[in-house]
Amino acid sequence: MISRERAYSLVEEHLKSKNLVKHVIATEAVMRALAVKLGQDTDSWGIAGLLHDLDYEFTKDRFEEHALKTVEMLANEDVSTEIKDAILAHCERKERQSLIEKAIYAADPVTGFIVAAVLIRKGAKLADIDVEFLLNRFKEKSFARGASREQMASCEELGLSLEDFLAISLGAMQNISAELGL
After folding, report:
1. May I ask the CATH architecture of the domain 4-180?
2. Which long-range contacts (CB under 8 A, 24 or more apart) does 87-94 make?
């Protein structure tokens, strides 16, 4: 399997936006935390999170190619079919069937949602945010519109309540707050 170091070097090579790099690192952390909670392979789940938007800067104006290009970019890397399928499933290029596919689908938007929650509180850090605050923002349709509530609520497919999912995601991001600059 591709090493975390090699996966991260691909991220550095293909993603120039600092915010996008932070997004994939945050998604990696959330995926690892979900893997622990669900008794799954943390390395595979983390790599899926780290690589899921590898093609974003190439496909942002051609969304119909998103994820398909990533899988193409990974053709010569030691990346499992499970990880490639998760990457495809995160943006509905394949039906979500496995736990990893369901997890990445829910994890992708939650990172941006949590970052938005931090940013609306002037001077706040991830440590200042709690699950109750996130649940209240979740109900506000005008808050973080780009973060799909439907995708985040799909955490129920993992056997997790929204509250538990947000707690796991927030905790994962708080654990890497220095790396995220939050």
Report:
1. Orthogonal Bundle (1.10)
2. 87/48, 87/51, 87/52, 87/54, 90/52, 91/63, 91/66, 91/67, 93/66, 93/67, 93/68
